[in-house]
Design goal:
- By secondary structure, the chain is of the alpha/beta class.
- It has a single domain, classed as Rossmann fold.
- It has 6 helices and 8 strands; from the N terminus they run βββαβααβαββαβα.
- It has an 8-stranded mixed beta sheet, sandwiched between helices.
- A hairpin with a 2-residue loop joins strand 1 and strand 2.
- Helix 1 packs across helix 6 and helix 3 packs across helix 4.
- The protein starts with a strand and ends in a 7-residue tail after the last helix.
- The C terminus is likely disordered.
């Protein structure tokens, strides 16, 4: 039987801007996965929505949030000025976590992060900054190397998912993996390219993410 889901639009304050997001709360959810995307992507990405839907079906709540305002997104589409600003993206993601911890409908939910592209770096920087709030991180086709000095500070269990045919990204994920000191795993999907467009590849990403979050969003950490 499909779970009942409460889906609605939210606005998250982050200093001088208001971030737009889509919050989905399956009935009885005890965990939530916050999606962090970068490199020109938005919360309307079909890939992210597909993965979020599979997580929802297993009982996980999700928040798909745009880390840039509509005005910033328009500038970024022309200049790519913001998508590699990991400090800014992480700051916005941290503000969103603080909002989740304060909002009445989400404050008791255990938090995991799902990052893609440069959003993966932002997710890892945020996990290092909020170790008592973030219990698990999954990065898909990410740039964890851009998290820099934050990598050894990450305490959340971290799964890196990379396509076997995604050469440069596979290499930088391997280098970042070596710098992580937390519970970690690097999973390579054979033959998959950067966007996981091959038959069944994206479903495999969703399966791996669901399994990781199910296994590591175990105990609520106050603070």
């Amino acid at each position: 039987m499909e779970r009942e889901r409460n889906e609605h639009f939210v606005r998250v304050p982050a200093r001088t801007v208001s971030l737009e997001g889509d919050l989905t709360l399956p009935e009885g959810a005890q965990e939530i996965v916050l999606f962090a995307h970068g490199t020109g992507s938005t919360r309307f990405s079909n890939r992210k929505r597909h993965i979020a839907r599979i997580l929802n079906e297993s009982g996980l709540a999700t928040l798909l949030i745009d880390l840039l305002s509509p005005e910033e997104e328009a500038v970024d589409q022309e200049t790519a000025a913001f998508r590699f600003d990991i400090g800014l993206l992480a700051e916005r993601l941290t503000s969103t976590i603080d909002w989740l911890r304060s909002a009445s409908e989400t404050r008791k939910l255990r938090i995991g992060l799902f990052g893609a592209g440069t959003g993966a770096a932002a997710a890892l920087v945020t996990a290092a900054a909020r170790p008592r709030s973030v219990s698990a991180v999954v990065c898909r086709s990410g740039r964890p190397d851009l998290a820099g000095s934050a990598l050894p500070k990450v305490q959340a269990a971290t799964l890196l998912i990379v396509g076997g045919a995604d050469g440069t990204v596979l290499e930088v994920n391997g280098e970042a993996y070596e710098q992580l000191r937390c519970e970690k795993k690097l999973h390579i999907i054979p033959g998959a390219t950067h966007q996981f467009e091959e038959p069944g590849a994206l479903d495999e990403v969703a399966r791996l993410a669901r399994q990781w979050f199910d296994g590591h969003l175990a105990a609520l950490k106050p603070g």
